């Protein structure tokens, strides 16, 4: 159990770092200074988990473990000083965001499943943790949040969280996390590569 908890903890830390990367890269054209970059990178990393803990009526995770604040701050600073050629790699933001999404959703879904929450709560909170940090960042930057567009984004998160909630009682947390992570990251990568989009909801005008 201690090994599993350690694995989940370090998966969350890695997700924090990656989400801070993608959060900063997503705003690079706005010419923010270092403080603005740190704030937005950190919001991207901790926003979803903060909302999750508030909804579950428990202590917000970064209040008792400051590593959850330190990691995205460091990640934001790294990207701020990263050579420009790295920041211009095609689709680097989307791929990093997909990996962060997969790490967050899989590890959080597994952790909540271990705590005895129902599958519906596990799935809902897994999705919230994975997508709402970026949504808050986009609202602050006056951009359309990715989950409100046609991008094939929230569907992989849902499928990954659902697979973890269903499989964990049967095959254990380690394999459930691995399968959930692979499912989300592969689906998201394929969506980026082949430009998968969901159909529009069209309203016909008279």
From TrEMBL:
<feature type="transmembrane region" description="Helical">
    <location>
        <begin position="34"/>
        <end position="55"/>
    </location>
</feature>
<dbReference type="Pfam" id="PF03458">
    <property type="entry name" value="Gly_transporter"/>
</dbReference>
<keyword id="KW-0812">Transmembrane</keyword>
<feature type="transmembrane region" description="Helical">
    <location>
        <begin position="174"/>
        <end position="191"/>
    </location>
</feature>
<dbReference type="GO" id="GO:0005886">
    <property type="term" value="C:plasma membrane"/>
</dbReference>
<keyword id="KW-1003">Cell membrane</keyword>
<feature type="domain" description="Glycine transporter">
    <location>
        <begin position="12"/>
        <end position="82"/>
    </location>
</feature>
<protein>
    <recommendedName>
        <fullName>Glycine transporter domain-containing protein</fullName>
    </recommendedName>
</protein>
<feature type="transmembrane region" description="Helical">
    <location>
        <begin position="6"/>
        <end position="27"/>
    </location>
</feature>
<comment type="similarity">
    <text>Belongs to the UPF0126 family.</text>
</comment>
<feature type="transmembrane region" description="Helical">
    <location>
        <begin position="116"/>
        <end position="135"/>
    </location>
</feature>
<feature type="transmembrane region" description="Helical">
    <location>
        <begin position="147"/>
        <end position="168"/>
    </location>
</feature>
<keyword id="KW-1133">Transmembrane helix</keyword>
<feature type="transmembrane region" description="Helical">
    <location>
        <begin position="61"/>
        <end position="80"/>
    </location>
</feature>
<feature type="domain" description="Glycine transporter">
    <location>
        <begin position="95"/>
        <end position="168"/>
    </location>
</feature>
<dbReference type="InterPro" id="IPR005115">
    <property type="entry name" value="Gly_transporter"/>
</dbReference>
<keyword id="KW-0472">Membrane</keyword>
